[in-house]
Specification:
Elements: H1 9-17, H2 33-46, H3 52-66, E1 68-70, E2 80-82, H4 87-101, H5 103-114, E3 118-120, H6 131-151, H7 156-186, H8 192-200, H9 206-223, H10 233-247, H11 252-270, E4 278-282, H12 294-306, E5 312-317, H13 323-334, E6 340-344, H14 345-354, E7 365-368, E8 372-375, E9 379-380, E10 386-389, H15 390-397, H16 407-433, H17 436-439, H18 443-446, H19 450-455, E11 466-467, E12 469-474, H20 476-492, H21 498-506, H22 513-522, H23 531-549, E13 559-562, H24 568-573, H25 604-612, E14 624-629, H26 639-653, E15 657-662, H27 665-673, E16 682-684, E17 689-691, H28 697-710
Amino acid sequence: MEMNLWNTFDAVRPRLERQYLEPEFAPDTGEPPEELKRMAEALVREHSGEPRIRLRAMLLELLLTRGRIGVDPADWFADHLDADGVMVPIREHWRDEARRAMPEVAARCAANSEQGLSLSQLDLSHTSPDWRNVLKLGPAGIRDRAEKALETAEDGEAREFFAAVARVYGAMCRYIVRLADEADRRGAVRVTGALRAIAERPPETLQQALQLALLYHHTQELEGELVRSMGCFDRLFIDFYRRDLAAGRLNREQAKELLKFYWTKFFAQTQGKLWGKNFCFGGMDGDGSDACNELTELGFEVYRELRTVDPKLSLRVHGGLPEKVLLQAAECVCRGRTAVVFANDEIAKEMFVRRGKLPEEIADFIPVGCYEPCVMGKELCCSMSTLFNLAKAVELLMENPAPPRDFGELLGRYLGVVREKLDDALELTRRWELRWPEINPSPLLSGTMDSCFEKGRDVSAAGTKYSSSGVMCAGLGSAADSLTALRILLFEERRCTWEELRATLKADWEGREPLRLYVSGRLPKWGNNLPEPDALAKKIADAVAERINRAPNARCGFFQTGMWSIDWAQRYGGMTGATPDGRRAGEPLSKNLGAAIAKDRRGVAALLHSAAKLDQAEFPDGAVLDVMLHPSMVKGKEGPKVVADLVRTYFEAGGLFIQFNILDVDTLRRARREPEKYSSVQIRVCGWNVRFIDLDPAAQELFIQEAESKSC
């Protein structure tokens, strides 16, 4: 690498950030998307009677070998393939076929979804490959492994599987050679050597490893499954980095520049307006020792300097994590770089053991998507297989005209509704899972998994060691507040009867505004370290976790409880009627593990204590607490220590994940009035970051309300 090729990032950054908005494809390198679509549809018709995994591999091969490509000589990485939108419509056609084949299931799913109660589905959007195998073997190595396995395949399904893996990885090798040829033609000297190397053998340098990870990511998403974790970055790439330094191929500043080019790819794909790409750092090794290294510090340094909302970083925290690493991540948060979530390794390890996973597998703990725990390379976690609205169950509870005798009976009724509706939602998800092999076989993703090779089975056919199905449970705080209000209004203070309250909620509190204000502002609320709502939240969470975590899925695994909601707190709120906590119909529910908007009135310490009362090791699909701080709390040199201390305090008490927003209500109001002046203001929306000015007005108003409550 010539030195005059370096120090160009700032000059070309605007171009890099628009590379997917204004792509350049060489017209003579392949077919345009409309022709690829025609060819794909013809291929599907011609081979309609053949196994779907074979057909899927043929389709991906077509796109990789016949799609137009583009290479930018100013970039350190090449990845442009003009084939988006070809594969997914075919998969959705197969999904529609499955829906028509089970009309009763489809009708029940639709009814549950339309009333805002639950969603049962195939979750194809929360996956991670075994990044270690991707980098250790390279595409040629995985192709060769599959061809060798094909020689001794034990049955027809295994033969189809290995043949499909060999086909897609052979096509990926040819695709990389095509990129190298185009790079030669364009004089793109930065990338030619790296491309030719990884087409034939595993990567040996940091640039080669990053290039391969980028191409694998794009190819899997072309296949049809979103890549929702890029693995433990510092562990995966440290050997490449150290070898480059030792050989004099690279210095630290050049490695930073490579990473800036690399991470900008992920921002440019979405312009920071979607869910972000998760890169994990830190954590324990299998023996419990700290796994941080030189790339841990370098990664957070680059993230701070980039100042973009994507990618998003996860930091795994444990007792042995160096304080300087935690403070470095906390400083990013204090300075408005809030695309960081902190994860508790100790609770995650206990959680894994309870679910039958090995304690040493904590080394490969990665948050998939936002904060859904997964064992990299061994687990397909499918963390949003089912969505469930805990607050909607309160609304259904109120439909019963018979007054409960006491609060014990009422609580029993509520938990009965939850169990009944959960069981139905899980059964519908199982029915969908049985259709997975015909809807979305995934030979590229499966080719990275050792257990898929051992079994001779695709991930869609339970090929991974752990095949989990996550259940996202939304609105815990709203449900606990509602039950608290019911206990006080009906049985302690007797301010109204069951019939009166049912009528009041049906009328959306119309004519009962004094009562609504009393309930909303005076009664105890979750998130304030108060015994009544906190105890009810724990009872709900315990009952839900017991029901879900013991339930088998249809993929030789189990369902897993997730106590989070992301933006479904707003969506499900819009589909939920008035609730006894003083909430009007259509208003948002409590988000993730947090309190309802502006209801955590006793400060951040009380919020942390409420959430920590839950047994979060029983939430193997994840659970996160959102914390909003006023900038005055974290200003100056001591600011990062404030954030770090909050993380340590919460984790020592039993918290699993925590994330922060540092917001000033006056700044947000000005940003809404003059967005062009505040494009740098970031918001941690749920499990991802966006620019505040990119939020819709309703979402902006919710954050303004929350920030206003923190400024009082």
